[in-house]
Design brief:
about 110 residues, 3 strands, about 10% strand
Length: about 110
């Protein structure tokens, strides 16, 4: 069991329940990892315990969480995909992602 903590590092992102997370992060990580990220975020906000997620290392590798001396740190928002993640999207999703970013910067 773990009790995740919120990680306020100043990174701007989108709300965990945003369609962006489900559409693009799921395409990169898979549905299990995204579901675990959402559970971690909820548990951190509520300061509740949950079973150690199976995809914890994957989430840390992608920079979505941090592991610090046995503590799981979770951002209150989910960052936008970085260049490395965008390259892993299909061509159609990559184009959709670029269009969303273009609208967002207006």
């Amino acid at each position: 069991m773990i009790t995740p903590r919120l990680w306020h590092d100043g990174l701007v992102g989108v709300a965990p329940d945003s369609p962006y997370v489900r559409r693009f992060w799921t395409a990169v990580l898979g549905p299990t990892a995204v579901a675990e990220l959402l559970r971690l975020t909820t548990a951190a906000r509520r300061e509740t315990r949950l079973r150690r997620p199976l995809r914890l290392a994957q989430l840390a590798t992608e920079g979505l969480i941090a592991l610090d001396s046995g503590t799981v740190l979770v951002r209150p928002t989910v960052p936008l995909l970085g260049p490395r993640q965008v390259r892993r999207l299909s061509h159609s999703l990559r184009a959709e992602h670029e269009a969303i970013l273009a609208r967002r910067s207006c």
